[in-house]
Design goal:
Elements (H helix, E strand, L loop, with lengths): L1 E2 L4 E2 L10 E9 L2 E8 L3 E6 L4 E7 L6 E5 L2 E6 L2 E6 L5
Antiparallel strand pairs: 1-2, 3-4, 4-5, 5-6, 7-8, 8-9
Amino acid sequence: MWDLEAGTERAVLTGHTGWVFAVAVAQIDGRSHAITTGDDGTVRVWDLISARLTSVTYIPLGGTVLVVHDNTVILGMASELLILQLEKPA
């Protein structure tokens, strides 16, 4: 993760065990989050303020396309679509 104003690296988000194919950004409970997916069969949600992983969802295939609208994640996997509802952390 980069600080674009300072031009410096702020954090490295680690967790995926393979290639990351898609990233989207969403507001959850007023905070910026990144949602990522790739060939390791997971969807991960990262708090961009704290640079912490907040949730992991296991999916049957690696995701290749990711769209977030309101609190809904639409994920493309091969010839399938998966729809997930984002919830704020407990």
